[in-house]
Structures are given as C-alpha cells and as structure tokens.
Give the backbone structure.
Amino acid sequence: MNRKSIIEFCLVPPPYGGVTVYVKRLSNRLRSEGYEVGGYYTEECKDQSIISSPIYFKEKSYCGSHNKVVKAFSQMFRMLKNTFQMWPFSIVHYHGLENLKFIWFLYKYCRKQVVITVHSMMIENFYRRTDRINKHYMQKLAEADIQWTAVSEQVRECMFRLPFSFKNEIPVIAAYVPILNEAHPPLAKDMQDYIHQHEQNIAFYARSFMYNDDVDVYGLNEAIKLYADIVSNYKANVGLIFCLSEDKDTDKINELYLYAKELDIYDKIYWQIGAIDNINELWQNVDVYIRPTSTDGDSVAVREVLDQGTKVVASDVCWRPDGVISYQFGNGDDFLTKTIHALKCGRAKATPNFNCYNAMKQVFDNITR
C-alpha cells in the first residue's frame, strides 16, 4: 500500500458545487506533487481522464426502494463495494457527515488514516436531525485519533458546540485551491460586448433562491438596489453582470425583473440567468464583485475573485479573507460608499494564494511521515 495514496470520498464534478470543485482541484494539485489520489464520479462526467482511470470509481444512485430489507441489502452491498475500492489507499478524506458508521469501520477495522473536512455551519442542525446511530459514531470519530478540519472559524465554533469533545486539534483550512493556466471558454459575445461598452463593471453571483429564516441569503434585491444607487451617484459608466444559476423559478425571476424595472435599471443590467461554466473568465473581466449575503462562510468565490486581482465588497456577516472590503450588512449607504471606493481603487495584480492548499497538504504530509 502506497502511504502517499488518498481516496477522496466525494464526487468530482458534475454536479458542480463548492465541495466537488474543491475536491477535483485538490486532487489534481496533490497528484502533481507526488500523491496518488482517487475518487468518485457520476454517469454525467465526461472527463475521459477520470472515466478511464483505474483509481476513479463510478458512483450509482442510492436504492430508491421503500422495502427495508431491500434497502438494507443495497446499503450493505454499497459499503462492501466502497471498502474494496478503498482498500489500496492509506488515507480516506471524507467530505460528509452521513453514514459515519462506515467511516468508523474504515478507521477501526481497515486501519485507514481518516481525515474529515466539515464544510457547513449547519453541523449542529445536522447533529440534531441525524439518527442515534450516526450520532454515536460521530462522537466515536471525534474521540478517535483521526484528523478533523473545518473550512472556516465559524464552522469550527459550531463543531465545538456539539455535546462531545474532539481528541485532536481542529485546524481551520478553507476549501480553496487556486488554478493556474487553466483554459476557459470565452465569455458569450453579447456579454463581452456589454463589458466593453462600460468603463467599469460589477459582478454579482447567486447559485439559487436561498432563504434562511425567510431572509434572502444571497441578497439579490440588495444587489439590484445597489446598482440603482451606483447609476444615480457615480459619474463613471458602470455595468452590472447579474448572474443567477437558477433558471427554473420563473415567478421569482420575474419579480427580480419587475423590481429592476421599478428602479428604472432593467435595461442597464446584463442578466445571466442560468449556469455559467466559465465564471473565472468573468472574474478576470470585471472590476468589483459584490457579495451582499445575509449569512455566509469562507466563500470559494470570494477567494477566486481576490486571486484574479478583482476587488470584493462583501457584507460583514462573517469573517472575510484579507483584501475584502466589508460593509455593514443592511446599511445601503455603507454598501454604496464601499463599492464606489472599490471602483475608484481599480483592479490589482493577479496573485494566486496557495496558503489554504499548503495547509491541507501539510495535514497529509504529517500523516504520511
């Protein structure tokens, strides 16, 4: 067994998301530095280098049967299959909190070194909702000699509030790996034309309509209102590229359109409704990225934008990386002032930051010594 071998117990894209993209980037970077890294993919994956790899495994959907016996046998077969697939690897890097009984089995009986990365501040709610068996094994793994990591200080604080203690120190390592010299498809021609028609451009991105206690998480209306204030109060000709991956909820999308029309800026905005697969190309072509979130964690998008030299203006609802210009959440005047300041500062030189990756690699290096 190669001591420098890791199985990333998580999918690589698609589906596209913060965790899956991170896993793919982390795997590629570790592989370039001497680690053997395997993982899982779905039938939607078109990357032939992954599909043809002997250390990547196709993951099928869970059994949908309501018959408890059939479901139990299906889960048992899945665990046996995963155990066989993971046997050649010395380290299991898990990115979830479900089925921790299996992770315990890998640690205790298969003698695997286990690293669990917690990506969500919802871990407390998850613990309350999960079944007693999973609660039991979460505590056993917390008290075992394995390595837990948290993607932000807020996530770690939530972990510390669980009704048990962790044996080992929990480092905070953001789930971010820069990408170098990666080719991106060009932006759509009409988007390029829109950008070139303006002296400066602001970008906003939301994955979906998401609410926390009935409060809009991404701040879609706040972004639109800010742009209306920019148009009224800033002399330069500034554009707004408004990106929303969710394109199915037409009622809510039409509400956004209506709000923009009420503010007389609908025709001034570039509406990117639907997924955009070259978001990094957009970051390279705008001056400011705004993130008026009502709740947040250590955002991968924020770090990517900073690495591109683009200014970031974000709400102060959580800790933000160095370089972010924070404004007081809910204070529209402060949001406007900070955004105008960012526009006046202009873009900086692109400087990829590998600190988070280096910290994660150090975790694996410590295990393999």
